[in-house]
Amino acid sequence: MKYDIIVIGSGPGGYIAAVRASQLGKKVAIIEKYSTLGGTCLNVGCIPSKALLDSSHHYYDAVHHFEEHGISVEKPTFDFGKMVDRKAKVVETTTGGIKYLMDKNDIDVFEGLGSFVDKTHVNIAKNDGTSEVIEGTDIIIATGSKPSTLPFITLDKERVITSTEALKLNEVPKHLLVIGGGVIGLELGSVYKRLGADVTVIEYAPKITPTMDADVSKELQKVLKKQGIKFAVSHGVTSVERNGEEVTVKANNKKGEEVTFTGDYCLVAVGRKAYTEGLGLEKVGVEVNERGQVAVNDHLQTNVPNIYAIGDVVKGAMLAHKAEEEGVVVAEFLAGEKPHIDYNLIPGIVYTWPEVAAVGKTEQELKDAKVDYKSGKFSMRALGRSRASGDIDGFVKVLADKNTDEILGVHMVGARVADLIMEAAVAMEYRASAEDLARICHGHPTYSEAVKEAAKAAWDGKPLNA
């Protein structure tokens, strides 16, 4: 079998690359080692975690907020098994949708482990022990990532677990210890805290969400602490030991003192690493960098001209939407088009409640780059829509160039900011100024008014409702 393009991996980057290439007239095959399509994101990442986040959020609201809305119910209870079953159905429907897209776009799907025979041939080792070789003019590596750990931690996947196992627990932990205060740790910590677990987040950096704007990290920690999550920042973990149903984590605080934490589960959420095992990159001489990521140029092309790589397996933020955009870029480039991707405008989102979203530069990045900037901030508490819904935590912050007024970064904490951030991304894509955004009429009452007000605060320092 000979194809114009072979895609190895069917996650968001891989399947989107395949669809776009097929739309542009290419004959495409996609190889996936698991029995379902969609990769980490759809099977054991983005989609199942959001399903549990939404279910747990509904329960949390019933317990803590229904009364203030005048809704009286008997003491709410939950069936964790049903929550997990619902999550599984959401995943099944979503991955089934990917299979539909493959059929619709005449993309051949091969199940098995893909590995390079040479630069144009890929062997597919199937689960039944057989194998098949297919040929491709161009090949796209989209094999994603897997959870990282620390050298001294033994992941037994029962009590000392990664995000994959945390999404499949058959019980709510009594005390969940979370190593890592990034997106994954905070989202899954939120799920189990809402359902009654004690949750302690242990973070090496001096703040949670270490790569995000400092104001965002501070606000999010304050709100999650109010919800009952405990935090130990500036704590370097030194050991994790399991004894029966108990897990003990030892860490050194910023004073160098040893601190001990005890729980029944420990989620290791210290990031993810590129997954290239079994690909046979060495057979074709594809280079990897010091972090084990496939090295690529600005066109996502490896040092072997007909082999490309996208998504978590290459440098940059490990985000599904970043992988999708890279998939489109490679497919269009191979079709002779001139696509582009602006890595500065890829939004970062945390699906806690309130949500967190950001695009562009943080204040610290602008300071480090010695950019002359100005800042405008507006509290969600000042919005009529926020008071109506009861979601008064958070803010929107707009950073703009002090001389040109061009928007350089937008950072949000609040209800539905995961969707709201795209207003900022669109504005920045078209090089909008803070004044431009401030002068656009926003619907009232909406959460989006906070964006207008923060932009006006950045432009002339005079928001209208603060």
Distance between the termini: 65 Å
Average pLDDT figure: 98
Which structural class matches the secondary elements?
alpha/beta
pLDDT < 50 stretches: none
Count of alpha/pi helices: 14
Write down the Rg: 23 Å
Overall shape: globular
Q: Give the tally of β-strands.
A: 22
Biggest sheet character? 7 strands, mixed
Main features:
466 residues, alpha/beta, seven-stranded mixed β-sheet, 14 helices, 33% helix
Provide structural commentary.
With 466 residues, the protein is of the alpha/beta class. Helices cover 33% and strands 25% of the residues. The protein contains 14 helices and 22 strands. It has helices at 12-23, 39-44, 46-64, 80-104, 163-166, 183-194, 214-226, 281-284, 320-334, 363-368, 384-389, 417-429, 434-439, 449-460; strands at residues 2-8, 28-32, 108-111, 113-118, 121-125, 131-141, 145-147, 160-161, 175-179, 198-202, 230-232, 236-243, 246-252, 258-263, 265-268, 272-274, 307-309, 348-350, 355-360, 373-379, 395-401, 407-414. The strands form 5 sheets. Strands 1, 2, 3, 4, 5, 6 and 17 form a 7-stranded mixed β-sheet that branches. Strand 18 (348-350) and strand 19 form a beta hairpin. The longest helix has 25 residues, at 80-104. The mean pLDDT is 98. Its cofactor is FAD. Its EC number is 1.8.1.4. Keywords: Disulfide bond, FAD, Flavoprotein, NAD, Oxidoreductase, Redox-active center.
Summarize it:
With 466 residues, the chain is of the alpha/beta class. It is built from 14 helices and 22 strands. The model has no long low-confidence stretch (mean pLDDT 98).
